[in-house]
């Protein structure tokens, strides 16, 4: 018995090999500079949003409070996944220590869960603003907004601790090659050489509570908003109400479509190339596009940006 335990411990992998986004040497260099540019652009956009919201009193409203939280989330999001993506494009397949892989997984799970609940909070904010405008100052007072934000961040940490602990406790006896550009749930479960029933149960429960729960809140909010908009007497009022929600609805649709396809299916996904493509959508494209879709097309944000630019230029 002791000999078998020693054998298991000796064969347990100490590191994984990340294949990266692409193994084709002829296109890796071009992809490296493309994704590096996207990374820097994403950081710049989101830093700008956080600064504008904090520096201009007219943007200190619930909607912009949640947008600033979302921008902080997006900067953290890309900073968790993008370094390994860029390293893989620069150096090719490389080793990542087991502890580093689990740390990346922990932060990734936490941030994706936070985004789910933040998007649901933003949908609820728009529901109250359009369907219950007289109750808006009370329902979305600062204390409520801060509480929703804290629940989003801290609740996601609790879920991430549970999921990461389960995945880290599995045995990985080899092979240790991950066909991905970061340590994600499905590729790691595919490499496990032990029974993963408990891990899949935790994954399923967290998906029901976080993913489907937040999606239900968002869908219910927008169904109510749609009904309220259709009952508005004038076309101008309908256009104005729809314009405040259209951008959020687009982002919600893209994010949840990709996330549900990957994480709400059975955990062991075999089509890793498709998994990588979809992962690029919500780890690279969405964080870069969100500030443009949400804020930089918004008239109040544009006005604040122009004032800031004029002040900087003298």
Report on the architecture of this protein.
The chain is mostly helical. It has one domain (12-313): Rhodopsin 7-helix transmembrane proteins (Rhopdopsin 7-helix transmembrane proteins, Up-down Bundle), CATH 1.20.1070.10. 78% of the residues lie in helices and 3% in strands. The protein is built from 11 helices and 3 strands, in the order H-E-H-H-E-H-H-H-E-H-H-H-H-H. The chain has a 3-stranded mixed β-sheet with strand order 2-1-3. The chain is globular and about 65 Å long. It starts with a helix and ends with a helix. Residues 1-11 have low confidence and may be disordered.
Distance between the termini: 77 Å
The structure class reads mainly alpha
The number of domains is 1
Instruction: Work out the number of β strands.
Output: 3
> Average pLDDT value?
83
Number of helices: 11
Q: Which fold name fills CATH's third level, the topology? A: Rhopdopsin 7-helix transmembrane proteins
Note poorly predicted spans.
1-11
**Overall morphology:** globular
CATH superfamily: Rhodopsin 7-helix transmembrane proteins
Radius of gyration from CA coordinates:
22 Å
Q: What is the correct CATH architecture?
A: Up-down Bundle
Strands of the widest sheet, in order across it, are 2-1-3
Can you identify the CATH class? Mainly Alpha
Order of helices and strands: HEHHEHHHEHHHHH
């Amino acid at each position: 018995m002791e000999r078998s335990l020693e054998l298991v411990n000796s064969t347990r992998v100490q590191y994984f090999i990340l294949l990266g986004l692409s193994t084709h040497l002829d296109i890796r260099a071009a992809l490296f500079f493309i994704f590096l540019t996207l990374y820097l652009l994403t950081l710049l956009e989101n830093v700008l949003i956080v600064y504008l919201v904090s520096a201009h009193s007219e943007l200190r409203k619930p909607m912009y409070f949640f947008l600033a939280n979302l921008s902080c989330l997006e900067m953290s999001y890309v900073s968790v996944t993008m370094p390994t993506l860029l390293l893989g494009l620069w150096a090719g397949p490389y080793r990542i220590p087991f502890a580093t892989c689990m740390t990346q997984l922990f932060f990734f799970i936490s941030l994706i869960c936070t985004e789910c609940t933040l998007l649901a909070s933003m949908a609820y904010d728009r529901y109250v603003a359009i369907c219950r405008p007289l109750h808006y100052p009370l329902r979305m007072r600062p204390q409520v907004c801060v509480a929703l934000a804290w629940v989003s961040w801290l609740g996601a940490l609790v879920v991430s601790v549970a999921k990461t602990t389960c995945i880290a406790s599995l045995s990985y006896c080899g092979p240790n090659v991950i066909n991905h550009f970061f340590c994600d749930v499905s590729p790691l479960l595919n490499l496990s050489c032990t029974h993963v029933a408990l891990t899949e149960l935790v994954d399923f429960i967290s998906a029901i509570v976080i993913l489907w729960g937040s999606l239900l809140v968002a869908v219910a909010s927008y169904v109510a908003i749609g009904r309220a908009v259709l009952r508005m007497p004038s076309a101008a009022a309908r256009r104005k109400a729809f314009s405040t929600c259209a951008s959020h609805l687009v982002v919600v649709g893209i994010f949840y479509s990709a996330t549900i396809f990957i994480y709400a299916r059975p955990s062991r996904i075999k089509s890793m190339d498709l998994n990588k493509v979809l992962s690029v959508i919500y780890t690279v494209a969405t964080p870069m596009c969100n500030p443009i879709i949400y804020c930089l097309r918004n008239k109040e944000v544009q006005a604040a940006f122009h004032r800031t630019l004029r002040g900087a230029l003298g």
